[in-house]
Amino acid sequence: MRIRNLMIWIVCGLFSVNIATAQSKWSAAKAKEWYAKQGWLKGSNFQPSTAINQLEMFQPETFDTATINRELGWAENLGFNVMRVYLHHLLWTADKAGFKKRLDTYLTISSKHHIKTLFVFFDDCWNDTAWLGKQPEPKTGVHNSGWVRDPGTMIYTHPDTLKVLEAYVKDVLTTFKNDDRILLWDLYNEPGNNKQLGKSMPLLQKVFQWAGEIRPSQPISAGVWNDGSAFSELNRFQLENSDVITYHNYAYIDNHRHTIDTLRKYDRPLICTEYMARRNASLFQLILPLLKAENVGAINWGFVSGKTNTIYAWDTPMPDGKEPQLWFHDIYRKDGTPFSKDEEAFIKQLCK
């Protein structure tokens, strides 16, 4: 009986999610009209160099507005007009009003530099355990050693987590749903990563339902990132329910071009929300001209080398902490000097 009731609940839950998202999803015409007003979108995933993760970025004790202002100034000088920024629900649970005030402060700084923001709610990448307070120091030479998932596997062990997440998403969306400093809401980064696969589907469906119930003026999306068969159901749901199509690609230009051609069939604007890994030949000099020619939004991973250690590759730690000759991600050092002056000049030429 318990199993039968569970199955009834799941079927009814899935049906209600599909109805909610279908009713609130933008038409292709509306998505194209919105995209045409934005101009070509170009920018980075942004984490200030003084923060190791989402929590350190927005906790009151470490909310470093001076660094944020300085580094976004470099982004403006490059010609960037959008940055992708991750949030974490623990910040909201600790201090709802204070967290939203800091988001407003961040948006004030970014808009001063003529940069819109793409906020990310949930994430299945890297470390499973997150906590408030002092965050860990970076592990020498290790890529993203302190990055944390949200919510991680606590959603399976703490029954009230889903209610908290719903309240969090709806409150933030309600507060900023008409804020034109926000470009787009990225509801879930890389669902299914860290071997979660289909376990991430219920939360993915729920966050689209919650966003549909609030229906912000900005578009909503969740980017496809893995074309493996194990992700086919996740990909289908993401693509069928996103107002605009977002995706990740860290591969060579031929592969990236194929991804664009494949996603064009959905007849919606395309924004690449993660690319650029030099070791993988996902280079600014190759990918950025392609994205500009195709009018695809271009948001690379990494801006200023800092506590996230993303100059090191995902799978190649350097225990001695020596700066690699070829950075994996990032454009600038903390002092504002670029990894490559030629690369910087190329980005400026294309983006300005």
TrEMBL record:
GO terms for biological process: carbohydrate metabolic process. The keyword Signal applies. Gene3D superfamilies: Glycosidases. Residues 157-282 form the Glycoside hydrolase family 2 catalytic domain. Keywords: Signal. It comes from the Bacteria. The keyword DNA repair does not apply. Pfam families: Glyco_hydro_2_C (PF02836). This is Glycoside hydrolase family 2 catalytic domain-containing protein. SUPFAM superfamilies: (Trans)glycosidases (SSF51445). InterPro entries: GH, Glyco_hydro_2_cat. Residues 1-22 form the signal peptide. GO terms for molecular function: hydrolase activity, hydrolyzing O-glycosyl compounds.
